[in-house]
Design goal:
The complex is a heterodimer.
Chain A (H helix, E strand, L loop, with lengths): L1 E5 L4 E6 L13 H6 L3 H11 L15 E2 L6 H6 L4 E3 L1 H7 L1 H10 L4 E7 L4 E7 L10 H54 L3 E6 L4 E4 L1 H7 L3 H4 L12 H13 L3 E9 L4 E12 L6 E10 L1 H49 L3 H29 L8 E4 H18 L3 E6 L3 E4 L1 H18 L3 E9 L2 E8 L6 H6 L15 H12 L3 E5 L9 E8 L7
Helix pairs in contact in A: 4-5, 10-11, 12-13, 13-15
Chain B lengths: L4 E5 L3 H13 L3 E5 L2 H10 L4 E5 L7 H10 L5 E6 L4 H4 L7 E4 L5 H15 L1
Parallel strand pairs in B: 1-2, 1-3, 3-4, 4-5
The chains are: A alpha+beta, B alpha/beta.
Chain lengths: 531, 122
């Protein structure tokens, strides 16, 4: 009987039993061996022809013998000893011995370990049932030699099976891995976006086809090299990459101007941290470059067209604005020549006064137009405190406010802004002036910081702005006032938005529930002028 | 013969003064209004033979005012004054009897007024 060893359950499981009931089962019969001159040849042929199912007996089903602490099996399996069991032993030591006797239907048998290189691989129980001969010592010796060899052979087979199974798994995993790698590679290569992956030392680990085109360097040239090898053009980018490690999050640069080997390009550049699987450490940076040059050029063109269109519109308005004062000047100059002739002094003086006023008005208009159409002037950015500016304003408008018997409420925090103080003051003057003119009893100036912006609100309780008017609030030359060029708000908008990168908008339009008209100026706190 | 009465509606002070001086020279009785509502109010109190209206005014524009006068069936000649030359060709004249482009030369305005007033009289 052959019993297999199950390490996990630490049991011996009977597998095959060459039952002596069948004449084929015995090997000692003369005739089979006589037919073959060679035992090994016999065994080989027998092995090929044997159907193992014949040796699986019902009696063996679901039997398992724990070998640890088993009187016989422990000795055999763990101490690798051959145990010869005799009827006397069975009588004397009972239990486990009797159990085996009942199983094997004999009271004389030898339990032999089949030993591999280091351990018992299986257990063989043999007997002389067929011949009923007594077991002689030299038989034990032969058995031992046979058992050792069988053990090694069995171990080899088992190892081979295990190896084959592991190889199959490995192969399957490798092909899956390859599939995924190829798939992601083809995605990387097909992308319209250039992808560069840097490790913690800013060396290039990934470089897709689009990156080759963008930077005019092949993958072979750059892989493993530092990103700075691309020259000073990327030094800024390396700084941003370093920032990613600090903020531990994605950083996006929009419309970044990149001067490559060819022409100027505009790129949206996204820096994403590459994390290890446990998501703990940042292993590198993934940089994606999206070419938005076309988009930007298109946007620029649209803006240019819009500017031209509004320029035409503006020209008409400018002409109109100038025409009135000119008509007045011309008209009174005519009348002046007559009144001087007729020596009407008072009249003449009055006319001269009007001429002066209108000329001043014209000068003001010209100044405002120039101011508005001037290209980005040389701004002087400095740190200044908001409180200083608002205090100056308060002094400037004190009289006017008292005149109208209004209340000026100021509530601004102590905040240091970075910008052109003169221009910001100008913007606020425009807003405050409007508020005072429009307001009935009260004008409020409110300042506070939120996220990365400083908000300054200027409100008044005067007549609300209608939606129709609101649409044109920031349009040049639009005004609801009798005098005024209508350039105040457009200039303010230019100062806040173009010169300082902020926003300006109005709240309280068309909403009957809101009692006040509020102009909101939003200035970024970290502001640096663009060169 | 009674002097014709003219109302000058113009929001800019100096321009208003200029027009009224020029028209007074011509011998008309000139009254002024600075905006649409003032104009309508004056018409409640007095009749006028002719009114000059500046088109570009805040609050109520000259066109709106002319329309309002017509709707009230006010018997008066209306001249619209504008700084924009394109109005002459763009707009139909259902409300106004004439459009004049503003200039320092008042000849056109004066002759148009004379024409319109003579037309009324005959």
């Amino acid at each position: 009987m052959l019993l297999a060893k199950d390490i996990k359950s630490q049991t011996l499981i009977p597998r095959y039993w060459m039952n002596r009931r069948e004449p084929e089962g015995s090997l000692s019969g003369g005739s089979p061996t006589m037919k073959y001159g060679n035992l090994s040849q016999y065994l080989r042929e027998k092995a090929i022809m044997t159907d193992l199912k014949e040796y699986e007996s019902d009696k063996l089903r679901n039997r398992a013998f724990p070998y640890k602490s088993h009187a016989i099996f422990e000795k055999v399996v763990l101490r690798k000893k051959i145990v010869q069991v005799t009827p006397e032993m069975i009588r004397e030591w009972g239990n486990e011995y009797r159990e085996l006797k009942n199983l094997l239907e004999t009271d004389q048998f030898i339990v032999v370990p089949l030993i591999g290189r280091l351990e018992t691989v299986a257990v063989l129980i043999v007997d002389h049932f067929a011949t009923q001969r007594v077991v002689k010592p030299h038989l034990i010796e032969s058995l031992k030699i046979f058992a050792d060899n069988a053990g090694l052979a069995l171990e080899n087979v088992l190892n081979y099976d295990e190896l084959r199974a592991k190889t199959l798994t490995l192969e399957r995993q490798t092909s899956l891995l390859n599939y995924h790698r190829e798939f992601s590679q083809s995605i990387l290569e097909s992308l319209d976006v250039a992808i560069v992956v840097l490790d913690r030392e800013n060396k290039i680990r990934e470089w897709n086809r689009r990156a080759e085109t963008l930077f005019q360097r092949s993958k072979e040239q750059v892989l493993g090299m530092g990103f700075d090898m691309l020259g000073p053009a990327v030094f800024d980018l390396l700084n941003v990459a370093d920032r990613v490690y600090e903020v531990k999050n994605t950083i996006l640069l929009t419309k970044y101007e990149y001067s490559g080997k060819e022409s100027k390009q505009y790129l949206d550049i996204k820096f994403t941290p590459l994390r290890s699987l446990e998501m703990a450490r940042i292993e590198g940076i993934i940089i994606m470059f999206d070419d938005v040059t076309q988009k930007k050029l298109l946007e620029d063109e649209i803006r240019r067209q819009e500017k031209l269109a509004s320029l035409g519109e503006m020209s008409a308005r400018v002409a109109h604005e100038i025409r009135n004062p000119l008509s007045v000047i011309g008209g009174f100059a005519n009348r002046l020549s007559s009144s001087i002739e007729t020596e009407e002094k008072d009249k003449s003086m009055r006319y001269i006064g009007i001429l002066n006023t209108e000329v001043e008005r014209l000068e003001g208009i010209v100044e405002e137009i120039l101011e508005f159409s001037r290209p980005r002037q040389r701004l002087e950015f400095e740190e200044f405190n908001v409180i200083d500016v608002v205090e100056d304003l308060r002094i400037l408008y004190q009289d006017k406010i008292e005149e109208k018997h209004m209340l000026l409420e100021v509530d601004i925090g102590d905040e240091t802004l970075f910008g052109d103080k003169r221009r910001i003051k100008q913007a606020l003057i425009n807003l405050l002036q409007n508020a005072i003119e429009a307001g009935e009893t009260y004008v409020g100036v409110n300042g506070y910081r939120q996220d990365n912006y400083y908000f300054c609100e200027i409100k008044n309780d005067g007549e609300k702005i209608t939606e129709a008017v609101a649409k044109n609030l920031f349009s040049p030359f639009f005004t609801t006032k009798v005098t005024g060029t209508g350039l105040g708000l457009p200039i303010t908008k230019k100062i806040i938005e173009e010169e300082h990168g902020g926003k300006i908008y109005v709240r309280g339009v068309g909403d009957p529930k809101v009692k006040e008209t509020v102009f909101v100026v939003q200035l970024p706190i970290e502001n640096r002028p663009e060169g | 013969m009674e002097k014709p009465k003219i109302l000058v509606v113009e929001d800019e002070d100096n321009m208003r003064f200029l027009i009224s001086e020029e028209l007074s020279d011509e011998g008309y009785l000139v009254d002024t209004a600075a905006n649409g509502s003032e104009c309508l109010q004056k018409f409640e109190e007095n009749p006028y033979d002719l009114v000059t209206i500046d088109i570009e005014m805040p609050d109520m524009s000259g066109l709106e005012l002319a329309g309002a006068l017509r709707e009230r069936k006010v018997p008066v000649r209306i001249i619209l004054l504008t700084a924009y030359s394109h109005y002459k060709s763009d707009l139909s004249s259902w409300a106004a009897d004439a459009y004049i482009v503003k200039s320092s030369n008042f000849l056109e305005l004066k002759s148009t007024i004379k024409e319109l007033l003579n037309a009324t009289n005959h």
